[in-house]
Amino acid sequence: MLTPQRQQQILQQLAEQGQVLSKQLSVLFEVSEDTIRRDLRDMAKAGLLQRVYGGALPASAATATFSQRQQVAVASKRAIAKKAAGLISAGQVVIIDGGTTTTELLNHIPKDLPFTVVTHSPTIAVGLADFPLVDVVLIGGKLFKHSVVAVGAGAMESIARIQADLFFMGVTGVHPAAGLTTGDYEEACIKRALAGRAAETVVLASAEKVNAASAYAIGDITIANTLVVEAGTDSAWLQAVQQKGVVVLSD
């Protein structure tokens, strides 16, 4: 079997099973594990999968630029954001992460709802400028342009002073085994710190993030108290998430 044919079949296995193991693939294709590892390395370089210890997981499609991500899974993000907005109550302190799904959240928040938003996203802060009853606290730091959010030591210092009711977290991958992941190390650290300052963390997982993984772990999936997904999400995947004690809401 030629290498391109084998790699195409690996992708098919990945789509059907949600993960692949190097040892099993070497038996299936009757080649060495070194050959399989080389295949996975080349496919990861092409952005086709995410390598993990012993095999690979589906790569998240949510790692493009901010403007490009605004065009990905638009209907899914809209439905999820609408459902998530209903979790906000008057008087709460709510952390809103940066990202295209959380930006969509602003379109579904009632203009007459009084609460406080803490965010490290200038985009989110500006989007709330015309909400007369929403107080906005903007966390500063070094601008990570890919996601248009503040990161670094300054941001971490400010985060340590927050006590919030809710944190709406954006991720690039949600996988029962790999957990919550994103494409940048510093951003993963910021998200983990924000989750530690909120009584409840709500993860917004649009279609392209479900059962996918990126390079940097935010943490185990149980960091999320609640996961908001699109209606029709794979039932086996939902069951695997719920077995870990995470509440799942769908639009």
TrEMBL record:
GO molecular function: DNA binding
UniProtKB keywords: DNA-binding, Repressor, Transcription, Transcription regulation
Ranges where the HTH deoR-type domain occurs: 3-58
InterPro entries in alphabetical order: Carb_Metab_HTH_regulators, DeoR-like_C, DeoR_HTH, NagB/RpiA_transferase-like, Tscrpt_reg_HTH_DeoR_CS, WH-like_DNA-bd_sf, WH_DNA-bd_sf
Pfam families reported in the protein's UniProt record: DeoRC, HTH_DeoR
Protein name: DeoR/GlpR family DNA-binding transcription regulator
Organism from which the protein derives: Rheinheimera marina
